[in-house]
Amino acid sequence: MRKRIITISLIAAGIILIVVGIALKQPESVFSKAARICMECIGIG
Amino acid sequence: MAKKWVRHSIQAVATLLQNANFKGFLEGKIYQGPVKSVCVPGLNCYSCPGAVGACPIGSLQNYLSGLKFRVPYYVVGILIFIGALIGRAVCGFLCPFGFLQDLIYKIPFFKKNEFRIDKYLRWFKYIVLALFVLMLPFCFKLTPFFCKYICPSGTIAGIWLASADKQVAGQLGNLFSLKLVILGLILSASLIIYRPFCKYICPLGAIYGFFNKIALYRLHLDTNKCVGCKACAKACKMNVDPSVSPNSCECIRCGECVNACPHKALKMGVKKEASKS
Lengths: 45, 277
Fold this sequence. Notes:
Strand order of the largest sheet of chain B: 1-2
Shape of chain A: elongated
Largest sheet of chain A: none
Distance between the termini of chain A: 49 Å
Helix content of chain B: 40-55%
Oligomer: heterodimer
Strand content of chain B: under 5%
Number of domains of chain B: 2
Mean pLDDT of chain B: 94
Mean pLDDT of chain A: 95
């Protein structure tokens, strides 16, 4: 039972953090990085 | 529990869905639509021409290496949410790079999964997570150290882009050569060892592994049915003994142990607390 409470709490915490992130417009900065070719990632540097 | 072909089918579909920008592979251009702001569950470089989502590890480093520090609520929230739901089932079912290693391991060749330093090498992925994903990007700024020096998924993206775009190909240098060697070593090792990248290097697997014990989707052992025959441990290619620790951080939820158990003592899924889980 205790394990189930921890699981549900973490799922809820995850959702809250995602909502806070969206409120702070964080998906936009994820997008700005992801929508351009990442030179470091592909090995150009 | 799902048979092996069912898992491989899910892996194939997940890989295709996360890389659904097929046009990008031909044109050497990456997808720039709105879905790119959503992190995918597995390790899938966002610079891969097919990628329709963002890599969670790349996004996390992007936040930590920013000149102005901001708490990465969004990315951490996604990782906690996915981790608490399914833990390392992401590795077994949804990760494209995990799927690639699975396919390579199927090639008939000399196989060896048990060797002395294996249990020490397992700790290396936590060092990669702490050092290359968290500390170095935070301390030295503007450099995603894991993506730049290690990530084999990014190297594959580089190969695709370079083969389709001469401008990209012209810029490749020593760093790409280093990453190519790392990719080559990982893929070669995958012929012999089952999922070497997942076992020893992957920081995303290290994060999801922390959730294995409490994830909603996990392995349940019925101690009343278990006779300790160790058929499950022998079947496990991640070297876990499910009769002792069914929810080890190393378990990728492939379900081989469930299929191997002659007494049906292991069950994978979401259910009420069993004898041992």
